[in-house]
């Protein structure tokens, strides 16, 4: 059974599609890169997958997964960095699935949190307030939380934006570790070199699917050109969309 | 001498003991709520809600005079009604919630003062607007203590989702549906504590014992637990010192309490360990690492 199944999905805002008529499957354990220019609908698609955005049309099936089996790392998290919370407590929220509203953080859980913080290279940062971290350190913290969520589907929205080479390498190693553990990983990315070298499957998106398949076959200059030429603006006078994807007189 | 000034009033007069107990109960429950109001950038929402309570309390006053049960019930009803109405208007019209709250609270204040002045005297009006903690009877004290207990229990239940929703609302939405109910429960706690403070400090100052201690705490710690503790202590100290000040100088008790809290706030702004002005002006030599 597929980890993710898109059935003619259209996602968007105010009836305007941002991702138009996407169909396809993601196999369990796949490592999928979602690429496309700004405004191509990458974030919209990921928001649809994690259930924050309801499809305008079509459906997304999660292959029996619960919303709690998904770990989602948004592009610009609405995190209030001025809130007085320590790295330890913040990363610890990743254990929500186990602790819920009242569950205590016992010795085993504390160990787990400390290990997660250590594995993103932030030893000694446990008691620092998150407001004092740099952008790269905050991204490491967010990865540590994803690590604790122990999710079978991991959705990362441009996780390496504005991050230096060392941090990118460290975090990419984590992504590959998750892949090795059989988790399904989807990541919206811009770095073609990284996609080519590390991601086996690629979806090229430009307000709709341009190509989807093994990276070597999909990442062609032609496909990228098609994606680049995509029109970004919503057409305010657009007609209602017909079933076949072509415009219909309203 | 010092004993006479600082402890004497409380051993000598029962109304002072009751007032002290009330102000401590208010501090225990109100200050943590205030910390969350501040951290969620809702300080002024709390202020607006405080005004919104007035017409309800005024109707209670109209029906049964200065009966604190009736006024409390009226205040609770009005507070919840305005909180929900403002939310509905904001959600259904796209008007920002603060703007719609501002409208509601101005209307409520005007309505409340009108209702009180229909039946009552200027003294009654002063009582409603600024409270009178020294006039508290046993029953009222019990109500205040009960509300404070409920507040602490509910806060314990919603603490975790409330914290996570304050830091990273999107994350909470992806792992749990507790965010919405927690937010509503929190708003309910705000109303309950405003009504509570209303007994002691009146509609106009009720929010003072919530927000000012929170502001003070922010200058002394970066840790949430510590901030809550500091806020509670600051509120209790302001309450106690305000009562003594009021007793010795005949200043009205509500304003005296808030004035003491203000003095503590100014001291914190100047000398606070976290972001205090003096600390910023004279940070000391930079560290090695």
Automatic annotation (TrEMBL), chain A:
UniProt keywords, alphabetically: ATP-binding, Ion transport, Nucleotide-binding, Transport, Zinc, Zinc transport
Source taxon at top rank = Bacteria
Could you tell me which residue ranges the ABC transporter domain spans?
Answer: 4-232
Give the InterPro entries listed for this entry. AAA+_ATPase (IPR003593), ABC_transporter-like_ATP-bd (IPR003439), ABC_transporter-like_CS (IPR017871), Metal_Ion_Import_ABC (IPR050153), P-loop_NTPase (IPR027417)
* Keyword Membrane among UniProt keywords: no
| Alphabetical GO biological process terms | zinc ion transport
Decide whether keyword Transport is in the record.
yes
Record-linked Gene3D superfamilies = P-loop containing nucleotide triphosphate hydrolases (3.40.50.300)
The record's GO molecular-function terms, alphabetically, read: ATP binding; ATP hydrolysis activity
Listed PROSITE patterns:
ABC_TRANSPORTER_1, ABC_TRANSPORTER_2
| Function of the protein | Involved in beta-(1-->2)glucan export. Transmembrane domains (TMD) form a pore in the inner membrane and the ATP-binding domain (NBD) is responsible for energy generation.
Q: Which family does it belong to?
A: Belongs to the ABC transporter superfamily.
Q: Which PANTHER family match?
A: IRON TRANSPORT SYSTEM ATP-BINDING PROTEIN HI_0361-RELATED (PTHR42734:SF5), METAL TRANSPORT SYSTEM ATP-BINDING PROTEIN TM_0124-RELATED (PTHR42734)
Q: What is this protein called?
A: Zinc/manganese transport system ATP-binding protein
Q: What is the lineage of its organism?
A: Bacteria, Pseudomonadati, Pseudomonadota, Alphaproteobacteria, Hyphomicrobiales
From TrEMBL, chain B:
- Do the record's keywords include rRNA-binding? no
Q: Does the keyword Membrane apply?
A: yes
Q: Name one Pfam family in it.
A: ABC-3
Q: Where in the cell is it found?
A: Cell membrane; Membrane
Transmembrane segments annotated in the record for this chain: 20-39, 44-63, 69-90, 102-120, 140-158, 170-192, 198-217, 224-247, 253-272
Q: Name one GO cellular component term.
A: ATP-binding cassette (ABC) transporter complex
Query: Where does it mainly reside?
Result: membrane
Q: How does it sit in the membrane?
A: Multi-pass membrane protein
Q: Which UniProt keywords apply?
A: Membrane, Transmembrane, Transmembrane helix, Transport
The record's listing under InterPro entries reads:
ABC_BtuC-like, ABC_TroCD
Which processes are annotated in GO (biological process)? response to zinc ion; transmembrane transport
Tell me the superkingdom of the source: Bacteria
For this chain, the family text in UniProt reads: Belongs to the ABC-3 integral membrane protein family.
* Name the UniProt record assigns to this protein: Zinc/manganese transport system permease protein
Organism this protein belongs to: Bradyrhizobium sacchari
